[in-house]
């Protein structure tokens, strides 16, 4: 049986730069994150580090051949080049045995979070609409970006402020979000755009768009709000040593949301 | 037999590779080029009793894997006498 440790405010979370990050977790880890590892995944250890070393939550790596999600509360599809990105990014990964379980889990309302290559896999699998195509610059872009958070009612963003601008790095060659006009207008009408590339002041401009994404889209959620895909890497900005901690807000949001489910 | 499948970006999809190749051709003096689209060519060696059967199987392959209908169009021809090239 899991122990329950309730959080009343964000201030109670362990400080990512603090000396004793585990002290606040004396009651034991509560939220279990699953991190999927495909052949060619490269951000699995980065996500794992944030989950168990920074956040202090429970971590379970899920091999692509696993046909069981091992009781995870949130499954992360991390960045990388799953199956070498052969044919198209994410095209082969979607046939991995673990993906069938992830689709069932998403159907039941489970939290599925695709980051970078994970976002591409979710689009190929049909769990999110649209596709990620080659950056309009044709360059692989590895840089910091500013994102305006357009939804704060989601399990992934509850620790963010209303229209807060967060600073998160990108690292991709194919992050140019494309959807047909009908899909795009449906996404906008339903408020499914969660993150948009913007300048430091929160203005959504062409020059702040690093890859040519339609409507400056950096991340979207499904209609139900449990499947999130985003190109930027929150796991790479979760400690002061890495130049920013905004990414940790998303991990904390998930942890807190999952706890609410456990407590209620 | 061999199915020769051609996958191209849909006309509405911006094709930065095509634009860049077009610019390269213009630099080389091929001013007559008005548009370039870069796609994929896929050869599939397969067994089928009839051309009709092969067509329906390759159609299914395109829909399920070879092309992403959100961003790509596909077309293919079936070569009944085609032999596997090495």
Walk me through this protein's architecture:
The complex is a heterodimer of chains A (264) and B (86). By secondary structure, chain A is an alpha/beta fold. Chain A is built from 5 helices and 11 strands, in the order E-H-E-E-H-E-H-E-E-E-E-H-E-E-E-H. Chain A has a single domain, classed as Rossmann fold (3-Layer(aba) Sandwich), CATH 3.40.50. Chain A has helices spanning 44-55, 97-107, 117-124, 181-189, 246-263; strands spanning 32-37, 58-63, 74-77, 111-115, 131-133, 141-149, 165-172, 176-178, 193-198, 217-221, 227-230. Chain A has a 9-stranded mixed β-sheet, with helices on both faces. Chain B has a single domain (2-79), classed as Mth169, Chain: A (2-Layer Sandwich). Chain B is built from 2 helices and 3 strands; from the N terminus they run E-H-E-H-E. Chain B has helices spanning 16-27, 51-66, and strands spanning 2-9, 40-45, 72-79. Chain B has a 3-stranded antiparallel β-sheet with strand order 2-1-3, with helices on one face. The longest helix of chain B is centred in the C-terminal third of the chain and has 16 residues, at 51-66. Chain B starts with a strand and ends in a 7-residue tail after the last strand. At the A-B interface, loops of A face helix 1 of B.
């Amino acid at each position: 049986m899991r122990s329950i440790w309730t959080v009343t405010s964000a201030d109670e979370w362990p400080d990512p730069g603090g000396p004793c990050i585990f002290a606040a977790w004396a009651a034991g880890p509560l939220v279990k994150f699953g991190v999927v590892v495909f052949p060619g995944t490269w951000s699995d250890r980065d996500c794992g580090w944030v989950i168990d070393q920074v956040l202090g939550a429970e971590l379970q790596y899920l091999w692509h051949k696993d046909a069981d999600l091992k009781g995870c509360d949130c499954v992360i599809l991390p960045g990388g080049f799953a199956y070498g990105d052969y044919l198209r990014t994410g095209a082969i990964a979607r046939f991995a045995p673990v993906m069938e379980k992830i689709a069932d889990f998403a159907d039941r309302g489970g939290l599925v979070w695709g980051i970078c290559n994970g976002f591409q896999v979710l689009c190929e699998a049909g769990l999110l609409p649209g596709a990620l195509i080659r950056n309009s610059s044709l360059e692989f872009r590895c840089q910091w970006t500013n994102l305006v958070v357009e939804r704060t009612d989601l399990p992934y963003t509850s620790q963010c402020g209303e229209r807060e601008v967060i600073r998160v790095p990108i690292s991709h060659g194919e992050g140019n979000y494309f959807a047909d006009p009908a899909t795009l207008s449906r996404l906008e009408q339903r408020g499914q755009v969660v993150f948009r590339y913007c300048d430091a002041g929160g203005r959504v401009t062409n020059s702040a768009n690093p890859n040519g994404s339609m409507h400056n889209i950096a991340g979207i959620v499904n209609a139900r709000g449990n499947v999130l895909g985003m190109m930027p890497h929150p796991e790479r900005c979760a400690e002061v040593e890495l130049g920013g901690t905004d990414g940790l807000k998303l991990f904390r949001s998930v942890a807190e949301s999952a706890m609410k489910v456990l407590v209620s | 037999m061999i199915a020769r499948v051609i996958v191209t970006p849909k006309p509405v999809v911006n094709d930065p590779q095509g634009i860049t190749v077009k610019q390269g051709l213009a630099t080389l003096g091929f001013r007559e080029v008005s548009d370039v689209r870069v796609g994929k060519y896929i050869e599939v060696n397969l067994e089928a009793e009839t051309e009709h059967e092969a067509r329906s199987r390759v159609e299914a392959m395109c829909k399920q894997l070879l092309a992403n209908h959100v961003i790509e169009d596909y077309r293919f021809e079936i070569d009944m006498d085609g032999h596997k090239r090495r």
